């Protein structure tokens, strides 16, 4: 069985499959499944989709049951169970049959309990079936406004990279999804996680979020108080340069050797001006006082960029000629030598 599923989630799905085969009550296995999805990373949704369908035997085709099988033997088709078993719609989000995926989306209402299930709804907006995508949008519009901000924050952060590669989203769909970030309570929770968390690709998450103007007012606190140096460095870079660079998951081609016809690929970088006033010199001075080499490096690089129009900043580099980091000493020496 694919290792992409957490042991807790896989065990819950296997209990469902066993109960389905034995034609026993499915209510408890479905409750267990919903609870176990909280143990699954939202970022794994693309791989987990097929793994869940396979483990739960949610095939795209099934034989139509006869009246005799339904009423004498008590057999139930998946569509019958969808109306009979509370919560089964969450499992059927992963069904191989598009009609049942759409039917499941139409039955889900209320707040979503964890980030993985939010990711499942978002993944259905990337579904290959148009009708499923439309139902997924309606479901998210119905459910996400009442979903807890901490659940939405976890979803947005952990799926930042994967969502940028989903290509069935239109620009309008992306914008409607991103509008949820503009909710003050969600934005505040996202910033709180960037400030306090100590694990995960936090700098990458922040760099992705720099595409949104709502993050700008939080950059100063992120540059000074984030626990992870990489987060402070990314925030400081935006403040010191006065603009934000972000990537959208796409790549652009560039020439390595045009006469030889050799090309390469690099991430497509977007750039926008900050919407807040940023004292660039003050940001640089603050960065130079940071205990992290990564942050001081960004501050010195900003001095190198501004050395020609602000000679006072150049003097700030001299104390770093004897820094414990060879990288910092090298950059400080370059600044001092260039001015001379």
From TrEMBL:
**Name of the protein in its database record:** HEAT repeat domain-containing protein
Q: Which domain of life is it from?
A: Bacteria
Q: Which InterPro entries match?
A: ARM-type_fold
């Amino acid at each position: 069985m694919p290792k992409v599923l957490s042991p807790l989630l896989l065990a819950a799905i296997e209990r469902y499959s066993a109960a389905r085969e034995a034609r026993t009550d499915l209510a408890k296995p479905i409750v267990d499944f919903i609870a176990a999805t909280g143990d699954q990373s939202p970022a794994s949704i693309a791989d987990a989709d097929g793994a869940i369908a396979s483990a739960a035997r949610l095939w795209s085709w099934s034989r139509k049951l006869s009246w005799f099988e339904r009423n004498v033997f008590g057999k139930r088709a998946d569509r019958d169970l969808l109306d009979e078993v509370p919560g089964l719609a969450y499992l059927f989000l992963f069904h191989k049959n598009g009609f049942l995926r759409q039917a499941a989306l139409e039955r889900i209402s209320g707040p979503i309990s964890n980030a993985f299930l939010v990711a499942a709804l978002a993944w259905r907006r990337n579904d290959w079936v148009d009708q499923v995508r439309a139902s997924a949008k309606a479901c998210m519009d119905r459910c996400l406004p009442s979903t807890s901000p901490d659940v939405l924050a976890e979803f947005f952060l952990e799926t930042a990279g994967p969502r940028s590669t989903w290509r069935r989203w239109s620009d309008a769909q992306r914008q409607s999804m991103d509008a949820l970030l503009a909710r003050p309570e969600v934005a505040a929770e996202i910033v709180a996680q960037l400030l306090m968390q100590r694990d995960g690709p936090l700098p990458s998450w922040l760099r992705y979020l720099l595409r949104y103007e709502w993050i700008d007012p939080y950059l100063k606190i992120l540059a000074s108080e984030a626990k992870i140096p990489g987060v402070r460095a990314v925030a400081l870079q935006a403040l010191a340069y006065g603009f934000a660079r972000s990537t959208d998951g796409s790549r652009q081609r560039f020439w390595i050797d045009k006469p030889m016809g050799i090309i390469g690929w690099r991430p497509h970088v977007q750039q926008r001006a900050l919407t807040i006033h940023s004292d660039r010199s003050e940001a640089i001075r603050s960065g130079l006082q940071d205990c992290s080499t990564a942050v001081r490096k960004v501050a010195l690089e900003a001095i190198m960029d501004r050395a020609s129009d602000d000679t006072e900043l150049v003097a700030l580099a001299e104390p770093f000629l004897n820094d414990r980091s060879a990288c910092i000493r090298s950059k400080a020496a370059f600044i001092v030598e260039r001015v001379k």
